[in-house]
Specification:
Keywords (chain B): Membrane, Transmembrane, Transmembrane helix
Number of strands of chain B: 0
Number of domains of chain A: 2
Strand content of chain A: under 5%
Structural class of chain B: mainly alpha
Protein name (chain A): RNA polymerase sigma factor
Distance between the termini of chain A: 58 Å
CATH superfamily of the largest domain in chain A: RNA polymerase sigma factor, region 2, helix turn helix motif
Oligomer: heterodimer
CATH class of the largest domain in chain A: Mainly Alpha
Helix content of chain B: over 70%
Order of helices and strands of chain B: HHHHHHHHH
Family (chain A): Belongs to the sigma-70 factor family. ECF subfamily.
Helix content of chain A: over 70%
Number of helices of chain A: 8
Keywords (chain A): Sigma factor, Transcription, Transcription regulation
Number of strands of chain A: 0
GO biological process, one term (chain A): DNA-templated transcription initiation
Largest sheet of chain A: none
Number of helices of chain B: 9
Largest sheet of chain B: none
Shape of chain A: globular
Amino acid sequence: MKNELEQNFVELLEKHQNIIHKVCRLYTNNYDAHNDLFQEITIQLWKAYPKFRGDSKFSTWMYRVGLNTAITLYRKSKRTITTQDFEGVSFKMKSEEYDDTEEQQLKVLYKAVHQLNDIEKALVFLYLEDKDYREISETMGISEVNARVKMNRIKKKLRTILNP
Amino acid sequence: MDELDLLKKDWNKKETHDKLSAKDILPMLNKKSSSIVKLLFYISVAELFFWILINSIPYFLSDSYRERMNMVYSDSALVGLTIFSYAVILLFIFLLYNSYKSISVTDSAKRLMETIIRTRKVIKYYVLYNLIMAGVSMIIGVYYSLHNDPEAVSFIEKTGDKGMMIIIGLSVIFTGVLVVVIWLFYKLIYGLLLKRLNRNYKELKKLEV
């Protein structure tokens, strides 16, 4: 029975693992930390799995557990803390770096997103995953109006980081 | 198109990490979690045992302490006090169990943070209760010594009011320092453990203003 449960879970996780990888990508800055967080999210998902009733989609359920682990439960290991700044250097955007090529813009954007705080990252993550404001508000536990207001502020903040 | 829409276009295109196979995932299920809830649980169990030991070891190990306790409290008062302290411990175990059970990783982020903070508060009140009890016992102990302990009585007879003030003063300072040190130590542990949670919770609360 346990084996069957385990097998089902692993199959589902294997299929939807990209969601966890994306959470890790947003909240960690190096390979080891990424794997560390991936493992912790997997453990939390597995612990909660017996209560998963299937009335929501497995992927939707993963978003919640994944973000909750990243924002609240996960204790950053020492090596993660020492590499807190993206790519080892504190990011300072200079206007001349922001050139017109899309690739360069994206690189800068990813760096800018890494500079946001944990809650802002969570909102950006859900936004990038194409979640509507109802789902964003339910996942975070804030009202839809506040989610919208915050999202607009984040957009402004990103703009300021990109064009100081 | 704003910045985030540009990012969104790219976001789902990239595979950023090697895909893990079922064989890689399976061993992870048996790994130990290092979440703050687990650590909080260990700390709360340790707190419970620590204070139970602190309160009972001297009574069972030291004859003179037992004699003194028996002298200070009459039999019925001692029984009453023991029952009361065990009732409080049971109450805290019940409250802790309940608040741990209410922590669910599938809740909304805000609710999850609130349930963890509530659990931490239960432990905080337990420590606070013990510190207050330690202070109260110290006061009762000093009061009793000043009136009944032959050594203390003769010391006061020799030195008068000044001696009494010295005993009271030293006891107050000693108790105060002890209580404050334990409290600070405790604040430090939880401060470090829940720093990130508190910061994120404040950030979420700020959205409601």
